Amino acid sequence: MKKQFFQASALVLTVALLPATTSAISAVDANTYREMEQFMSVFDRVRNDYVDDVDDADLIKGAINGMLASLDPHSSFLDARDFENLRTQTDGNYGGLGLSVTMEDGAVKVIAPFKDTPADKAGVKAGDYITHIDGALIYGGTLDEAVKEMRGKPGTPIKLTIVRPGRDKPFDVSMNRAIIDLKPVTWEVKDNVGVISLNSFSADVGADVKAAIVG
Q1: Closest to 164 (Cα-Cα) out of 156, 176, 172, 154
Q2: How many other C-beta atoms lie within 10 A of the C-beta of residue 113?
Q3: Where are the beta strands (DSSP E) in the chain?
Q4: What residues pair up with 163 in beta bridges, in sequence order?
Q5: How far is CA 38 from the centre of its chain?
Q6: ∠5-6-12 over CA atoms, to 5°?
Q7: How far is Cα of residue 37 from the mean position of the Cα atoms in its chain?
Q8: How far is the C-alpha of 156 from the C-alpha of 165, rounded, in Å?
Q9: pLDDT of the chain along its 215 residues, tens only?
Q10: What would be the CATH architecture of the domain defined by 96-180?
């Protein structure tokens, strides 16, 4: 009898909790919908009233990146083009010049050339600014566009116009694209101390670090 009582009580308790659980889920959904309505309200206001014309895709991508950035410094959204660039980098080789570049005030700035690459052999230096590629102005464009122009079929020629701090006039540098075999790990021995430098991440980083330790 007592066992039946507890079973019945448990059943009643479970049934009693169902409305509360359903109500809580509904409240969460309602709050989410209100937040989404607020987002769409801001989205429409920017589209209609911002001082410059804006692209819907750019706004949505910016919102997604903002959402992920609020989680931690390492989460980000990659569209198809960004993913392809990342895959090229992590694969460890591509047809290009061997430059690490960034965007600074609308200009493409060289962070550093990779050792023994076409850019390194042609004399491109860290701190150089690239203003033209094959005579076409790239100032004011995007970094992705500039990188895409610099990459290409190995053996094809390319001309960069360089502005170098300390020199009065821009100058041209010509070279041929080549397969860039990135060396994400370098090592050397200084005063009987082994120094391993991890320059970037690629598919071969683990094996390269192991080789550096063994070697």
Answers
A1: 172
A2: 22
A3: 93-96, 99-104, 107-113, 129-133, 136-137, 157-163, 171-176, 178-181, 185-190, 193-198
A4: 129
A5: 29
A6: 90
A7: 30
A8: 28
A9: 544 443 444 443 444 444 555 555 555 577 788 888 888 899 899 989 898 888 888 888 888 888 888 888 777 777 777 777 666 655 555 788 988 888 888 889 998 888 889 999 999 999 999 999 999 999 888 888 888 899 888 899 999 999 999 999 999 999 999 988 777 777 788 888 888 877 666 667 778 788 778 76
A10: Roll (2.30)
Query: 8 Cβ partners below 8 Å, 6+ apart?
Result: none
Q: How far is CA 58 from the centre of its chain?
A: 15
Measured between alpha carbons, how far is 97 from 178 in angstroms, rounded to an integer?
7
Distance between CA atoms of residues 169 and 122, nearest Å: 18
Backbone φ, ψ for residue 194 (5° rounding) = -80, 130
One-letter amino acid for residue 137 of the chain: L
Instruction: Give the closest residue to 99 by CA, choosing from 166, 146, 153.
Output: 146
Q: Where are the domains of the chain?
A: 2-69, 96-180, 185-214
Bin 85: left if φ > 0, else alpha if -120 < ψ < 50, else beta: alpha
With vertex at residue 107, the alpha carbon angle to CA 132 and CA 89, rounded to the nearest 5 degrees, is 85
Its pTM surpasses 0.70: no
